[in-house]
Amino acid sequence: MKFAAVLLLVAYAAAYVRYDGYQVIRVIPKNVNELELLMQIHNDNLDKLSFWKEPRMVGRFVDIMTTPDFADDLKSLILMNGMEFTINVENIQDQIDQEREAMSSRPGIDVEGFNYEIYHTYDEINQWVDEFVATYPTISSVFTIGSSYEGRPLRGVKIGTSTATVSSLFLEGGIHAREWISPATMLYMTQLFADGYGVDQKTTELVDKLNWYMLPVLNADGYAHTHDVNGDRMWRKTRSPNDGSTCIGTDGNRNFDYMWGGKLEECITLVNAGSSGIPCASTYRGSHPHSEIEIDSVTKFILQDPSFKAFVDFHSYGQIWMCPWGYTFDSTEHLEYQNTSNKRCVEALTAVHGTEYVYGQSATMYLTSGGSEDWGYGSAGIVLTHVVELRGDSFILPAEEIIPSGEETFAAIRALGDTVLESETLPEANIRMT
Ligand SMILES: *[C@@H]1O[C@H](CO)[C@@H](O)[C@H](O)[C@H]1NC(C)=O
Ligand SMILES: [Zn+2]
Q: Residue whose CA is closest, atom 10 of ligand 1?
């Protein structure tokens, strides 16, 4: 079975990956037994199924992508085991085709200015960084954290006018390649700072009193692979090879050096330790912490600057705003304060378009180990560390949702900026543990 899966992946690597007739089936597990059954069904059919949302929590939906030939079997297995399902995506290739068509018919990017209403390639985003700072030199500059495995520069836009030492926020997108709404939302939020500066009093204050480091695409190679005609729209991981395996890539968001690999005792009933040690798995944690140059670079960049007081890592999908810990159900020392920040961000977000988010401690919604939120708090000592699953029901979100996603998420990060400013007079909340 495993051998077949490997062969399939190798065959895929040589050509543009198609998803004709692939479906995404959604199940809401009612108890731990059902969580385990779903994991078992998946593990028994690794060559036919792959999770879009893994079974983590009773009552929280699980999304399973199935090959067309196995769809009926999967549905029977679910029903036979006393569970129900809905079809979340009828045909993945249809969504991909629509998305590609929308991208190919788009207007040019440098004639009428940058078009935020469409998805962009890595190269376009890289060019956008230069165009943005050339257009808004008084409030922005370029920062570089390093280069990807394949040598792509990892660059972002720093927003802020203050020349004094002020608190900084680090916001990153695109650690998981296929979650396109994340970089798109990052770009539009950056533009909203520029649009609001000198126009809107709150935005002006936040630009004058804080530094905002906006890194749109951390996993540049993976993101480029999702756009490549010889690539795979559903790619998630980095693109570095793995010793002794034909499978490529590590899950960047399982590669951070804090409780890397998890605390197994707590996870046994959940079958999964929040990351995988198998190189072919989509949540492969890597051969060692920070094995991925992208993760090594971003963590070094954050650690060298003690002004970082907030760190947010944007993902999709599912509409969740989270705080540490992700690897354990234990509470952090600052959970109440962190959850208040969750609440404040979500209330500001929902007020814009009515989009409903859930919020709370990461582990209680989605057990992960080696994730950004645990590193941000546990290793970098940044109390206001959040990980966010942006809006939507699929990794393929219509481009019409980019602007609303940017608008609502911008309201959330403005609320976070307020929390950072207030924390400056709250020493116990303002710590950097390292
Ligand atoms: C966060 O706050 C919400 C709303 O008050 C609450 O339901 C939830 O249990 C809290 N989560 C944690 C982890 O404290
Ligand atoms: Zn993600």
A: 360
- Candidate from 323, 339, 386 with most ligand 1 atoms within 8 A of CB, to mutate: 339
Which residue in the list 172, 389, 401, 408 is annotated as catalytic? 389
Q: How far is CA 189 from the centre of its chain?
A: 16
Domain range for 340? 119-229+286-429
Q: pLDDT at position 353, please?
A: 98
Query: Sorting pLDDT into bands at 50, 70 and 90, what band is 427?
Result: low
Per-residue pLDDT at 101 exceeds 90: no
Q: Which residues line ligand 1 (CB under 6 A)?
A: 335, 339, 343, 360-361
Nearest to 315 by CA among 217, 403, 239, 399: 217
Ligand in nearest proximity to the CA of 235: 2
Q: Are 47 and 118 in contact (CB under 8 A)?
A: no
* Position in ligand 1 atom list of the atom nearest CA 339: 1
Instruction: Indicate if 428 belongs to the active site.
Output: no
* Protein residue with its CA nearest to atom 5 in ligand 1: 343
154 and 85 within one domain: no
Domain co-membership, 159 together with 10: no
Give the number of whichever ligand sits closest to the CA of residue 362.
1
pLDDT at 430: 54
